[in-house]
């Protein structure tokens, strides 16, 4: 393995959870962006802000029924996605990780897709479609939020149980206390980010009960250090689920988005979001909860 490949892999969250397209393209490009940004003194949050500009602009370019303009939009969105990965890679390179940076990164992704959904809907209406498309887009956006939230939630716990990484696991009550202490006048941006994050965490907690129970059991009974026998069993059962996590996040939906844009019927993208991805979400969450229910029983039996 080359030294450069080792350096790039050092900026992964986890080799297990990295998607194929991320490994062969986005993480390599993102690493180059992160190294260049480090040399220029650019912070992860600045990269996130730049990614928003690229992503929101891409959404606007999808409004036009023009192949060349749409292609530019595709390139901008791919660049935005690379930047979205680069900010995390830079944070790991420079050890400048922060909760607000992580939340800002999530908000950036939402802003990009809000722009995309709004411009696709406007395009659909201009081309003679019904105005109901905006309601369909809204429901699709809510679905998208749940899909990404749950995929991210289970990925965070995979890193905790398999690799002992817990920096992304926040106590919701502590987050609420931090939010209450902030002033809208003095810290409006941070307070807004925490408000968004609290809602995001509520979405996750709404559907994921057993994984939280397993986490709390390990924290209480094993002082937050997952025993090797539990870590191995966890990885054995959950690694096959990672492919579903990846489908529910960004790359797959971007591929479908590009196809529907160039075919000229954006309604197909929203139907993919509402039907295919929501069915997958239901299967994914039910399966994960069954797995974590078993793992909780397994851990309790071993502890006794």
- The tally of strands reads 0
Strand content: under 5%
- Cα(first) to Cα(last) distance is 44 Å
Helix % is over 70%
Can you tell me the residue ranges where pLDDT is under 50 for at least 5 consecutive residues?
none
- Quaternary state reads single chain
Shape: globular
What value does the average pLDDT take?
Answer: 87
**Which sequence of SSEs, written as H and E, runs from N to C?**
HHHHHHHHHHHHH
- Give the biggest sheet: none
Q: What is the SS-derived class? A: mainly alpha
What would you report as the Rg, rounded to the nearest angstrom?
20 Å
In summary, what is this structure?
The chain has 304 residues and is mostly helical.
Describe the structure.
The chain has 304 residues and is mainly α. The chain is 80% helix and 0% strand. It has 13 helices and no strands. The chain has helices spanning 3-9, 20-40, 44-61, 67-94, 99-126, 133-163, 172-181, 188-207, 210-221, 228-238, 242-248, 251-263, 267-303. Helix 2 (20-40) packs across helix 4 and helix 5 runs antiparallel to helix 6 (133-163). It is globular and about 65 Å long. The model has no long low-confidence stretch (mean pLDDT 87).
